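Entry 14. Two folds queued back to back today. First construct below, sequence then structure tokens.
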Amino acid sequence: MNYGASMNIINPGKEDYHMHSMNYSDGMNSVFEIVYFAGKIGLNKIAITDHSQACLDAKGKCRVSGRDNINRWKNEINDVEVIFGVEGDLLNEEGDICDHLSDEPAEFLILSAHPKVYQLQSSKDTITKGYLNAIKQYHKKIAFIGHPCIKHFSDAVDIKEVIKAANDYGVAMEINGANMMNNRTDMANLDILLERADRVYVNSDAHTLHELKHAREKAFEVLREKGIKLG
């Protein structure tokens, strides 16, 4: 395959735009711990992108902190630039999405599909239709499609069609380090993504400090093994 021929890695350096906290969703560490550790391992910029309200409700997760005062938070810990985003959810094949957490809009929006939140209904191509419709409607606010190569939905997504729509509307795709670390990546779909995607983010999707430190390293290791130049 002609890997990475026209692919632009948006964050090849010390920036990670996908991780989760215990304050607002299912991470194992607090915002304070994440920001402190991000500085310790040399990250310059991070996006804490906790799950959408639809995902929290579907999975019975609760928040430790209220999200309504998040605009009052300032980083007094170190020099890491911190964005508070949302990992939004694809809801159905019409392309409806949940893009908020506790009714607070996202400064930075990921669009993902998750079990229990998106239920397959009549056919295996409903997620593909959902992505195509959502990208068409919401491309101006979606930064990237989260973990598009996850094994859970690999038989239910036409990755080529999703990548084409993302390219057409200027939406990036994600290479997800935690999924690679935890054997949740469909490697065949990853090969297609590397061959066809115009723009990608390489993120940790960290739920632990261990993943925050090592998941992107794992993703870049895989890219190097496939002969992709990282700059």
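Second construct, same run, same settings:
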Amino acid sequence: MVWIPGGTFAMGSDDHYREEAPAHPCTVEGFWIDRAPVTNAQFQKFVAATGHRTQAECPADPADYPGAPPERLQPASIVFIAPDHPVPLDDPYRWWHYVPGASWRHPEGPGSAIRTRSHHPVVHVTSGDAEAYAAWLGKRLPTEAEWERAARGGLEARAYAWGDELEPGGRHLANVWQGPFPHANSRADGHAGTSPVGSYAPNGYGLVDMIGNVWEWTASWYREGHGGGCCGASEQARLASIDPGSEHGGLPRRVVKGGSFLCAPSYCRRYRPAARMAQGIDTSTCHLGFRCAV
């Protein structure tokens, strides 16, 4: 783990997506955070020691999803499958698919495996799975404010964790999408999916993969904008995170940070410290992982 000194920093951004605004001063106490996202090898040790089954490996409770057809209640997770031609970008279900049998052990579904991905970030984990792993080690998930301070690496008011250019001098500094999204990834950075942690240079605090590779869970409940606050972990904040009109229905939503290998300049420019998204607590995907804090 790496020690992140406490202090006040400029959180959020007024220059990109509306949910990142307003930019505002935020103060956090010093904390420790994992140098890298939790890997498949690390998660495998946890599962072997505890017998933990991830939510993606368990059938869903029909009571939680009234009216859902039985085939939607079987063990499954959400997988990116690239279409073979250009598609409109206003319908994410053209590339996101609910795949029975997909899990952290089988990232693309039955027939896929992690034998050669021991040092890749674990994926297909819900916030509950991440919290269970953290608790096993006497750790916790970082708050959104902690995560963002750590991701900035000591830089203030910069677009990226390394400055204001996505690819300074033509160098790839994070695992993100190159080419027309979602059908043609040129793999100019050498990766089509997740990459081994530490494949890119660390930020100013010595942390790797804070940007790109996989989104990361935080402990903070989501709200549309910062509203001048730094984080939200109260019961009131949990209830306020629920948006029945969203794809997550009546479930609470947490903040996820960092972007992933699927973030593209043409579609999702969220490979920045200020970027944030809402994720329902039951959601697991092929591009969502986590790291721990103390």
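Quick look at the second one. The radius of gyration is 18 Å. The first helix runs from residue 40 to 50.
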